[in-house]
Design a protein that fits this description.
The complex is a heterodimer of chains A (269) and B (426).
Chain A (H helix, E strand, L loop, with lengths): L2 E7 L3 E8 L4 E8 L4 H15 L7 E7 L11 E2 L2 H13 L7 E5 L4 E6 L5 E6 L8 H11 L6 H7 L12 H13 L4 H23 L5 E4 L6 H11 L3 E2 L7 H20 L1
Parallel strand pairs in A: 1-4, 4-5, 6-9, 9-10
Antiparallel strand pairs in A: 1-2, 2-3, 6-7, 7-8
Chain B lengths: L16 H15 L9 H12 L10 E4 L6 H6 L3 E4 L5 H7 L9 H10 L13 E5 L3 H12 L4 E4 L8 H22 L5 H24 L9 H10 L5 H21 L10 E6 L8 H8 L3 E6 L4 H4 L10 H13 L11 H13 L4 E7 L3 H16 L3 E7 L6 H22 L1
Parallel strand pairs in B: 1-2, 1-3, 3-4, 5-6, 5-7, 7-8
Helix pairs in contact in B: 1-2, 4-5, 7-13, 8-10, 11-16, 14-15
Classes of the chains: A alpha/beta (269), B alpha/beta (426).
Chain lengths: 269, 426
């Protein structure tokens, strides 16, 4: 029995997905990227394989993707996270009746991808070289507010006043803005909602640049944050499709492609 | 001890930031690829000497700097002077030039100003006797006065805002004739039928060599990579024209042998890219380099640091001096597809033609942040290309290397999407 792995080495988290010969998802694993990308990626792969009792040599093909894709030398191949994300979202999206637009927010970038009916990338846009409106921004904001990242969603819905406006798009300036709002004794709930709306506005602008078609699929770590999901839905004025494991869609896409490549090579041999 | 007069010790040039920047780029161009053509050694060596070691590039006689491809080189050569193209691609000079320009302005103009304000500018071609500054985009127009303020002798070569009308043609012909007079007072030489014919023959031979190279790039699989082609055309900026032509002819001879031997410079299935927009100028070849590192191959370009500079030849009707100068003026105006022209349908026509004749899979459109005309034209170009079924990736960037990671992801995704499309079409 062969297995196929997709390894998504992101700036913040390493995600691994494993599929079997039939193309079914066996399991996923998420761990921190830390500072030793290569070592931690190997470790993440080992943990997932051990959990499902799969030996390393049973992995017939492995594709690396994400920010650290070039660093992982044991991979059979590497692809950009945009392509991997599109493949994964196309596959997961089937259960929702198909998706054509993907919004992905990662640890240090955000992307909007348009796919055609076959799941091929037809257009995409990516934020420029700054961390505004990305997971890093949420991270910084949570730290300023002394809140756990996982709690941001609850704060969003518990506010009694309207979301406050965060004007700065720059993470560093927004940080001082948040501190200013706290100093003016505004409630954390309203600040959190404001932060979510500021990310949502940026993200929707990006998505509109590539064009929004049909159902919109939202993934990446920040998609776990229900408050942010609500804010983007509000800015977009349409419902988002959020998968059960938003963090691992890209790794899953890479694993699907690994299986396809393996089968293609076997057929050619 | 008279320490007051002690001069601060400067680093030797080859250890400066500028030399390191050039070296890093050159190493990537040379070492990251297998099977570089043997004839490229001449160009690799030229850039290593000029940019990494700061070796003087000896130029005798009168030197005329040009800030754009609109300055008629043949006139400069005919009067016994040497043209040097000043458009610069160095991030180091971009940083220096930032002092002269607003924050959101073009890297190329900033770097050119940075270079002209430096003592001992790289490449070391020596003191310029004149800078001819064609009045193209606003930033270059205004930069002319800044160059003059630095102490350079600047000549504004007046270019019309459009190229379609008869009055623009007449206006430009007059500008070119005026320029010839200015060169006469600079060099003390007269323009004659004989020296202009000889100058046209010289540039004609260089253009013919470029066209041959350009046509070799039509072949699939590719015989030569775009990163090398850009380095070749960049060398034309400051190299001796006859030496340059010989080196390109040698390269062409090698490509002919490669073709006979069935050699491939890139994978058979490598997506073929047409490059357009703001010009790649060494050391800022990051975008062509990223395309080819991602598995694409740049097969053609529509930029003023390569194709637009060398592709078109002068066609003379009557070999009389006045007619020759007018024909020369026409050659510099009519085929030019620069976005400074108010109506530039011609550029779209040119791009579609190149995309078709070079069997291009996609177009990468570079725009330097702050270059308004290229930024403004990208919409219409993207629409026309999409209508013709050619994908386009628009990249706004500058000379800094901060965005390399982000750009490599975008370019890889673009190359992958073309591969996928081709697989699905098969």
């Amino acid at each position: 029995m062969n297995y196929f792995a997709g390894l998504d080495i992101g700036s913040t988290a390493i995600k691994v997905a494993l599929v079997d010969e039939a193309g079914g998802l066996v399991g996923v694993h998420v761990s921190d990227s830390g500072s030793l990308f290569h070592k931690n990626a190997k470790e993440a792969l080992r943990v997932l394989l051990d959990r499902h009792g799969v030996r390393r040599e049973q992995v017939g093909y492995l594709i690396a993707t994400g920010y650290g894709r070039k660093l992982f030398k044991e991979a059979d191949d590497s692809i950009s996270e945009i392509t991997a994300n599109a493949i994964g979202a196309h596959e997961v999206g089937r259960a929702f009746g198909g998706v054509r637009t993907i919004i992905n927010i990662g640890g240090q970038d955000s992307k909007a991808i348009q796919i055609d009916a076959n799941g091929s990338v037809s257009n995409f846009a990516m934020n420029d070289k700054c961390a505004a409106g990305t997971g890093r921004f949420l991270d910084v904001a949570a730290r300023n507010l002394d809140i756990d990242l996982e709690e941001l969603g609850d704060y969003h819905f518990n506010g009694r006043g309207a979301p406050l406006t965060i004007n700065s798009t720059c993470t560093v300036f927004a940080e001082s803005e948040i501190i200013g709002l706290l100093a003016n004794s505004h409630g954390k709930e309203e600040i959190v909602a404001g932060i979510h709306y500021s990310i949502a506005r940026r993200t929707v602008r990006l998505a509109k640049r590539v064009g929004i078609e049909d159902r919109v699929y939202f993934d990446g770590g920040p998609a776990l944050n229900k408050g942010l999901v609500a804010a983007i839905q509000d800015e977009l004025q349409r419902e988002l499709v959020v998968p059960e494991h938003p963090q691992t869609t890209t790794a899953f896409g890479a694993a699907i492609l690994a299986r396809q490549e393996f089968l293609a090579e076997r057929a050619a041999a | 001890m008279n320490s007051q007069n002690a001069k601060p010790v400067a680093l030797p040039y080859n250890r400066t930031r500028q030399a390191r920047e050039a070296e890093t780029m050159l190493d990537r161009i040379v070492d990251d690829f297998d099977d570089n053509p043997a004839a490229m050694a001449y160009f690799y060596d030229l850039f290593r000497r000029a940019w990494c070691q700061g070796e003087p590039m000896e130029r005798t006689g009168v030197r005329v700097g040009t800030t754009c491809i609109h300055a008629p080189e043949e006139l400069i050569y005919a009067m016994g002077a040497t043209p040097v193209r000043l458009c610069n691609g160095s991030y180091h000079y971009d940083q220096i030039g930032a002092d002269f320009m607003p924050a959101k302005s073009c890297s190329l103009v900033k770097a050119t100003l940075g270079m002209l304000s430096s003592e001992n500018a790289i490449p070391r071609i020596g003191k310029l006797d004149l800078i001819v500054n064609p009045t193209t985009c606003d930033q270059k127009k205004k930069a002319g006065a800044m160059m003059a303020a630095m102490g350079h002798a600047v000549y504004d070569l007046e270019l019309p805002p459009s190229k379609e009308s008869e009055q623009s043609r007449v206006y430009w012909q007059r500008s070119v004739r005026e320029f010839a007079l200015r060169l006469r007072s600079l060099t003390g030489n007269k323009l004659t039928k004989k020296n202009l014919t000889a100058a046209m023959a010289r540039t004609g031979r260089a253009q013919a060599a470029f066209r041959t190279l350009h046509n070799f790039r039509r072949k699939a699989p590719s015989l030569v990579l775009g990163k090398d082609a850009f380095l070749v055309t960049n060398a034309y900026f400051f190299d001796d024209i006859d030496r340059w032509t010989e080196a390109v002819e040698k390269l062409n001879a090698e490509l002919a042998r490669r073709e006979k031997d069935g050699f491939c410079a890139a994978q058979k299935k490598a997506p073929r890219i047409l490059f357009t927009g703001s010009p790649p100028i060494f050391p800022n070849l990051k975008l062509p380099l990223l395309i080819e590192q991602a598995g694409g191959v740049v097969v053609a370009d529509e930029t003023c640091s390569a194709n637009r500079m060398l592709y078109d030849m002068t066609s003379v009707d009557e070999w009389l001096l006045n007619d020759m100068v007018d024909s020369l003026a026409d050659k510099y105006l009519k085929p030019c597809t620069c976005p400074i022209f108010t109506n530039n349908e011609d550029r779209i026509r040119r791009l579609l033609e190149l995309a078709r004749s070079f069997a291009v899979d996609g177009v990468v459109y570079q725009s330097f942040a702050g270059c308004q005309v290229y930024e403004m034209e990208q919409r219409s170009v993207a629409e026309a290309l999409n209508k013709a079924g050619v994908a386009m990736l628009y990249v706004e960037t500058d000379y800094s290397l901060d965005d390399m990671g982000q750009l490599s992801t975008r370019i890889e995704a673009f190359i992958e999407s073309m591969k996928t499309r081709r697989r699905k079409a098969a």
